[in-house]
Amino acid sequence: MTDDREVRRRPGGRSARVTAAVHTAVDELLVEEGPGGFTVADVARRAGVNPSSIHRRWGSLEAVILELEAAKLTEISPLPDTGTLRGDLLAYARTAAADIVRPGRLAFLQALIGARDLNTEQRSAPLLQRAAQLQSMLDRARDRGEPSLHYTAIVDCILAPVYLRYLLGMSIDEPDLELFLDRTLASTALPNTR
């Protein structure tokens, strides 16, 4: 005997709805309370889910923040394609410097620092996703005949000084970004030890 009632399925199912609700709650709380200003229980209450669902799916609040912030990077900070490596790197550096001052944007760094108890895969998965995107931008430049870089050059020479200057309360001006860019491009002269 068959049931004539139409079976309605929502795309993504319950798991996708829980993930979306948790991501939305964390995003809102990051802006309202700042990193470290809320707990898994606060997220669960706002998302309308049980805290055990968050612990089971992510393991910790830091893991949720890492996943959310990595996903947001692709959305709010797409990688530039200016036609030149220098142009791409300068545009990326400008975006990174402008983005870090927005409310809640240090959450990714703070979650990484707080995620010492996560296993290596949980800590590195969101980072590797963005690293692959950065490497594809660099590979595109290499394919045009420009210098070959590894994504860690961007981390070492652009992101690290941008984050450190912000944390120390130092300004970041266009000449600073040019200096970071020159250091990044100079890293191609170093022997590849990666």
What's the quick description here?
This is TetR/AcrR family transcriptional regulator. Keywords: DNA-binding, Transcription, Transcription regulation. The chain has 194 residues and is mainly α.
Report the CATH C-level class of the largest domain.
Mainly Alpha
Work out the radius of gyration: 20 Å
User: What is the helix fraction of residues, given as a range?
Assistant: 55-70%
From the 3D structure, determine the CATH topology of the largest domain. Tetracycline Repressor, domain 2
Uncertain regions: pLDDT < 50 for 5+ in a row? 1-11
* CATH homology-level superfamily of the largest domain: Tetracycline Repressor, domain 2
Strand content: under 5%
Mean pLDDT reading: 84
Largest sheet: none
Which shape, going by the Cα principal axes?
A: elongated
Number of discrete domains: 2
- Number of distinct beta strands: 0
Structural class, by secondary structure, is mainly alpha
Q: Secondary-structure element sequence?
A: HHHHHHHHH
Helical stretch tally: 9
Termini separation comes to 63 Å
Task: Using the 3D structure, state the CATH architecture of the largest domain.
Answer: Orthogonal Bundle
